[in-house]
Amino acid sequence: MDCLFCKIVAGEIPANRIYEDDEVIAFNDINPQAPTHALIIPRKHIDTLNAADESDKSALGAMSLAAAKIAEQQGFAQSGYRTVMNCNEHGGQTVYHIHLHLLGGKAMGWPPYQDTLKTA
Ligand code: AMP
Ligand code: ZN
Question: What is the pTM of this model?
């Protein structure tokens, strides 16, 4: 399968891994948007959140638990952080292997967009 993140899971493309367990791996985003910007991905390929099913519940939960563990390791669990999963075009998804963004190390604004609200 021609998937960038499957190749990172397989070790065919290098990534700076900061966490791994049976279900997920995490590595630093190549284009960081915060002092810490990690991507947490399931070892199993899932295109989008829409494609996840009941059998993926454990992996989806493992992604969130990994985010909290990494936040603790990096020292910003108490000050706070953000997790985001983008889905499809309007969500801003560009890599079609689901991933949870973990952003921490600075205070972030809300709402997270500056663009005009789209209704379509
Ligand atoms: P998204 O737009 O939600 O699909 O996020 C994809 C993320 O993957 C972006 O933040 C990219 O900077 C990041 N990314 C793309 N290629 C790599 C790579 N080879 N290693 C690490 N992060 C990457
Ligand atoms: Zn994949």
Answer: 0.94
